[in-house]
Design brief:
Blueprint: H1 2-41, H2 53-59, H3 63-74, H4 82-87, H5 95-119
């Protein structure tokens, strides 16, 4: 959330030529700086001293469900050809969500194309 506010500030403060470069450099630097604190402060739930036993049990309450799902995933499935594997999203995303996402991407690409043509960029 902070990066969404920080990047436009970089563009205004550093100008058009250097702004986008500094946005990448500074957000990357802040991310690496945050990574140091993340490794210092974060502990897995099994090693955390601030986690009560009831909270730990709640986190791991779905372990039995995960074992059943993993066993179902390892069950043999009928073989498909390579092209069918590429375009089949069964079990990963509902088909209407896939079609809607694809339509929105196409509309966005067309919008960007026509706006860039109107501005004389392309």
């Amino acid at each position: 959330m902070i990066a969404a506010l920080f990047v436009p500030w970089c563009m205004i403060h550093f100008g058009d030529q250097l702004g986008w470069k500094m946005a990448y450099i500074l957000t990357g630097g802040v991310g690496l700086f945050w990574l140091i604190f993340w490794f210092w402060l974060y502990n897995p739930p099994a090693q955390s001293k601030r986690l009560s036993q009831s909270e730990f049990n709640y986190i791991h309450s779905d372990a039995d469900e995960a074992k059943v799902a993993a066993a179902d995933a390892l069950a043999p499935k009928p073989a498909r050809n390579t092209f069918q594997k590429l375009v089949t999203f069964q079990g990963r995303i509902p088909s209407n969500a896939y079609l809607g996402m694809t339509l929105m991407i196409l509309i966005l690409c067309a919008f960007i194309f026509f706006i860039s043509r109107m501005m004389g960029v392309a």
